[in-house]
Predict the structure of Acetylornithine aminotransferase, mitochondrial.
Amino acid sequence: MIHTELEDVSNSDLMHRSLREAPDIVKCAKGAYIFLQNGQEIFDGCGGAAVISVGHGNSEVIQAVSKQLSVVSYVHTFEFTTPVAEKLANILLKGYNGKIAKVYFANSGSEANEAAVKVAVQYFYEQGKASKTQFISRKQSYHGNCLAGMSLSGHVLRRRPFENLASDRFHKVSEANEYRGKKNGESTNEYVERLAHELEEKILEIGADNVAGFFAETIVGATTGCITAPKGYFRAIQKVCDKYDVLLIADEIMCGSGRTGTFFAWEQEDFVPDITTSGKALGGGYSPLSAVFMNSKIVDVLLNGSASFNNGHTFQCYPLSCAAGIAVQKIIQRDNLLQNVKKMGSYLGQKLMKELERSRIVGNVRGRGLFWGIEFVKDRLTKEPIDPSIHIGQRIQQNALKNGLAVYPGFGTIDGLSGDHILIAPSYGITLDQVDLIVQKVAASIFEMEQKYCP
């Protein structure tokens, strides 16, 4: 039987993420709110997975996509291009002359990271360095659902069923997490030097002639909850990569596209990656859109070699997605939303820290711009995690939903198995009053769970 309006998903034909618990049915979404079919209003404090950048149901974006649909919805990029794809590329690269040479548009972050892996390998292949096909990433990381992205990722639980499929050509070093990784008495500089030395040792262990690239999220997203790198980390890492002819690839699928107050999160660090991947907020949730940005070093080698990029997708440079991307960028630039991200982000961080400093289970509040994570602990002094079987992060997320707020829960924060956090990533146009609302609801949801599960 076909229903025109779904009222119950308990017997749904659709494969949901959980086969036991049915998700809430969304009737509509507008601005900062999600309206459920049961009548509840939810303030979207996380944009799903940090996707929403200019709010839900923005009429400008909807009109731009609709207009493009009436012009051309699809052409194959082997033979054709479209003005809308060319325009989006021009908009995104403007101002980055000398740092970025080309951009490639895909649909998902997973696709973008797969493409980054392939272009890195092709870059060396075109130079006669065919043995450079191995990669290094960090233990607590996430780089996508496809096979290369999964092999790059250090997300234990997401990898576990597919470990036998993961390639042994992908290697791991420690994540850059000052809150948990820095030793007692160790300075930030010493910690950074230790991490850089670990990467160098790993390259030498594998063989520099075999390593193509080092992948890292500029600010780690769902795996550890908005962990920012120690000062000087990426500069030190880049020196090691340059020394051994290894490409530095920045995964900004979650933290980029303006989420931290600049289009690229690396603009607030002392380095420029060879390749950057972006997604999520890039299309604002209006159409699937991701991107791979390459510097001239990469492009020049391909141009002087095969003069091609050996990675094609049926829906790459999809016109409807590009139209959405242009509209999103237009709104962000016209309304000066990146400045708002910086201002409101600073306020959000300060408010969270102040309101949660008396919590016994909030171990760390960290982030930048409108990208903040809260890590929960059993003991703030020892940083011992709460029993994973309690699922405190998910319980706080569920409690927040009851209180009318959507946040993004995470687990396995410490080692892939233990540790919990939530992530906050609202739309770029958020106001002071809305920040106060988020903080109030987050604090109430945490303190209620704290009393119930950690008396």
Q: What stands out?
A: The chain has a mean pLDDT of 94. Residues 432-453 form the longest helix (22 residues).
